[in-house]
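Give me structure tokens for this 649-residue protein.
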Amino acid sequence: MNDEQPNGNPWTKSLLVWGGIFLALFFAVSLFSARNDIGAQAIPYSEFRAKVAEGSVYDAQVGEQRITGKFKNGEAYSTVPIPNDVTLAPLLAQNNVKYQGKAPEEPNVLLYILLQALPFLLIVAVGFLAMRQMQKGGGGGAMGFGKSKAKMLTEKQGRVTFADVAGIDEAREELEEIVEFLRDPGRFSKLGGKIPKGALLVGSPGTGKTLLARAIAGEAGVPFFTISGSDFVEMFVGVGASRVRDMFEQAKKNAPCIVFIDEIDAVGRSRGNGLGNSNDEREQTLNQLLVEMDGFEGNDGIIIIAATNRPDVLDPALLRPGRFDRQVVVPVPDIEGREKILAVHMKKVPLAPDVQPRVIARGTPGFAGADLANLVNEAALLAARRNKRLVAMQEFEDAKDKVMMGAERRSMVMTEEEKKMTAYHEAGHALVSVNEPASDPIHKATIIPRGRALGMVMRLPERDSYSYHRDKMHANLSVAMGGRVAEELIFGYDKVSSGASGDIQYATGLARNMVTKWGMSDKLGPLQYEDQNEGYLGMGASQRLFASDETNKLIDSEIRTLVDNAHVRATDLLKAQIDKLHTLAQALLEYETLTGDEIKQVVETGKIDRPEAPSGVPLPAAIRGTSVPRSGRSGGLASGFGGISPQGA
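Here you go.
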């Protein structure tokens, strides 16, 4: 449940409490051991006898170990007598001193027991204090490891409703039906319908699975428990299963209710994959979860909602109807969904009149809800940094470039030779892309270092694409080779740099997928020769080839042929348009960053329209170089020539 933690340091408060208890104990000891001669004047026994002889003593209480009393002037006295002094009584009687005997003091048993027990009480108190802190901070501690860590979601976390969820209408509608069932079960039960026992939210990271669950909590009006899959498993055997039982016991007490398990793949992986003993702690936890969700004991009124981005690793028994009756796919939003998501997040930001959510949505294909929220936040931060009162379209464009291409590294010092090679490299990518009909339009080209690249050409599709054609893949291969070919033509084959390493890696991976997975090789035919498997517990991925040695050689030959043909295609194109390559490289050197429209304008007219460049003024052609020294420069000119790569690449 939702335990509220007290303010301040709990250790400090506990120490203060126990300190007060010990002070009270010492005060009690002091009371038990108090003596009635406190404040009396201690005098020698000879002086006491002299005072008696001169008539100054009023009374005396004579004990075996101490004589106490008062002088006639009212002062109290105390003295230690000589044992067996038989002359004291006659002396007191002779001087008219009132005296009486005092019984020997009995030992204080309670004081003795208390003093002997103090060390033991101290040890017990410290142990109890430590155990209590373990129970508070460790989710159950030594006496409560099996207690569930599920927390009830309250209004303090901020109420989220379905109005805050946009761009995933189909997923939202399926979950809205569960909420309606909780509100009005009779509407469905009169037709024989039963409430779903569970719903599994499946989707890529950032698509809004947890947000949907919070919206259900805000709309349902019933208790909502939330827990992470990793909260079940501990190092102690049996703890996870005990926590599952305890969680369902809490849910039964609050039924009807909803239990949300985030990242269920942490506890719901397929059984039998353990090393050594297959019946490990995680499998015991999963077995208990399976029994609680659909076993002999009914859990009427308890709806389990789980979220994962790895449905392929879940145990089949967990996915069957009766446990998770529905698998709700939460997809990456399309352009309409992105526009709605942007509208939700832009409500919290003061916008300038020139902001166009539709344009931003069209320029952010593949963005999930979390990415769009981050984009709006970055734009707001940029506007605040520039001391603006409103967030304009320029801030959104700059934020989009930062998110897609990385932050600019203007502090990075590059020599003129390095800038020149970077400009020609990116100009090669851009020029090939402009002349490839199947290529995506260029969004922006820059020679300003961004992220891990020293330059970049970003391409964006005109619409959302869910599959890619063969001609587009050949175009992407040619664009990938454009930067390397430009370096070869301008600086010579012996002076090419390592900046094309990312392009070569991309082209090789794309060509391999075309041959081994997508059946785009005429010699090998429409067969799959390669399968990608996840390593144990996600430790990397491995690829298996289902082919003989001769076929493997043919696969390598076909991959080489695809990349070589793309290289030849880019070479022929750049040789035919070498003057445009020089002009485009010079424009990049002069302005550092060019938009897609400006690149198209430079290629078509050799001119550029900018406030700092008068309209219609032609750009000077770059001086054709032969070689540029590459002293001490590391690789990475343009590891990412395009922002959107083909599916599976």
